Every structure is written in structure tokens, then in C-alpha cells.
Amino acid sequence: MQAARTAVLRELIRGGHVDGDAPAVQGGTLASASADAPEPDGRVLARTETPFKPSGALFALRGNLAPDGAAVKLAGTERTRQSGPARVFDSEEVCAAAVRAGEVQPGDVLVIRYEGPAGGPGMREMLSVTSSIVGVGLGESVALVTDGRFSGATRGLMVGHVAPEAARGGPLAAARDGDTITIDIDARSLTIDVAEDELARRLAGWKPPPGPATGIFARYRAAVASASEGAVLRPHT
Hints:
Elements: H1 2-14, H2 30-33, E1 58-63, E2 66-73, E3 81-89, H3 92-100, E4 109-112, H4 127-135, E5 143-146, E6 158-163, E7 180-184, E8 189-192, H5 196-204, H6 215-223
Parallel strand pairs: 3-4, 4-5, 5-6
Antiparallel strand pairs: 1-2, 2-6, 3-7, 7-8
Helix pairs in contact: 3-4
């Protein structure tokens, strides 16, 4: 394992992606620490000029549905774009139940909101829903957009970490059933086909859902930052 790590490090240095003159913990530089690493074999480790794929699987998306960004780990699918009608749910449980009951149709873009750092509270993992989508045979025809997060085992066109989150009045809070949502990995965009003034009108009449009023969850909800800022806790006054 150590040999593999140093081989990766040396290849990144050779490709100009890591500063080889940076100091190593054990002394010397990163370049000297990895100088004796084995050459890339082309199977486990490729050269930077001939990678396994032209890009990685992680993408950041922005748009009028995610002004502060959203994250996609594209795995288990070759789809890079989907545009379809929104099916909006205010919790993971309600969405999962709809999927299992056969109420979701191919082409739908599922929206699960109020599952972000403040809304969860705690930014819950949406593995139950994503597993259900694949389990009922909709993994290649349904997409998901949420301000929650995903498991490393998630597969399909699933967009998470939407920021600002719905519980803080982000645009996801204004989404309605039937709105057209477009996910475009190549364009790095996540958009909803609703005019800016209409989104503003909807949000003007929006009220946050009830949450814990006392206790540790209430304190956490009040102090947690956006997912786009690392969901860290900030001093609360």
C-alpha cells in the first residue's frame, strides 16, 4: 500500500500536479521521498497523460436551483444529462415510500428537501431512497436532487449538497411538482425552468417547516453553516 501511494505521488509530481519541492514529514522533499517508487503499470496506475478516464467522477454544479453549488458523484450510469418534471418531497421517508409504491415514473426528477445540515438536522444520508430507485428498476430513468447527502455506495444521476438548503430559504424550497428541472453534468449546471420573479414570489410566501425548538438539535440547527461552507458550527448569539 505504501508503495502504491508513493507511486501515485511521484506520478502527480511528474505531471506537474504536486510541488515536488514541498517538504516531506520524514525529512527531505516529496520528490526525494517518492523517487524510488515503481513506474506506473498501466493497469492499476496510469500515467497522467493517458488516464483511465478523461475526468474523475466528482462534479460541482451551479445554477438557479443551486446558487452556492451542488455535488454529483457520477457512478453506475453513463447519463450526464436529464431534464424532466419535478416530484417534490419534504423528507426522505415520504419519497422512499412513493418510490416503493410505484408512484414515481420514468423521467421524473425527484426532489428531497429539508434534509440539509439545518433541515435534517444533520444532513442525513439518502441511501434508502437511492437504493429504492435502483431496486424498482428506475436507476437509469429517474434522477434525484437533494440538499441532503449520499452514501459512497450511491449510483445513478443523484445530485446532493444543494446550497443554500431549503430550510434556509434556498431555491429548492420554491420547487413545485411539475416544474422542469435540468441536470447537465457537461455544462456543470443545475437549473429549474421557473422565471426569476416567480421564484422570488414563491419564496416571499415561504415559511420554514417546524423543527426542534429546544435541546441540542435546536442549537445545532441554529449554528450550523451551509454545506457549501463545510457544514461547520459557527458561534451563535
